[in-house]
Amino acid sequence: MKADAKKILEEAMQLEPATRAFIAESLLEGLDFEQDFEVSPAWRAEIQRRSDEIDRGTAKLVDSDTVIAELRQKYN
């Protein structure tokens, strides 16, 4: 990873979870895939529901370190 990309990533990780989610979503939407991936109507609705919860601040977001620690404790 280039130094400037690493610095941007480190700075972004200091932001609030909802802000990081917005940035991640925006970056993913900006990727130019050669073909679209089909998403079922049910998954599209679920994605929209979860995105709305994040935007409203009602979603319980858990950082990756916590999730990994919980999984390690559960499966070790």
Structure description:
The protein contains 4 helices and no strands. By secondary structure, it is mostly helical. The mean pLDDT is 90.
Kindly summarize this structure in a few lines.
This protein is mostly helical and 76 residues long.
Give the proportion of residues in helices.
55-70%
Low-confidence stretches: none
Beta percentage is under 5%
Assembly category: single chain
Helix and strand content put the structural class at mainly alpha
Instruction: Tell how many strands the DSSP assignment holds.
Output: 0
Strand-helix topology:
Layout: H1 3-12, H2 17-29, H3 41-56, H4 64-75
Features:
mainly alpha; 76 residues; 0% strand
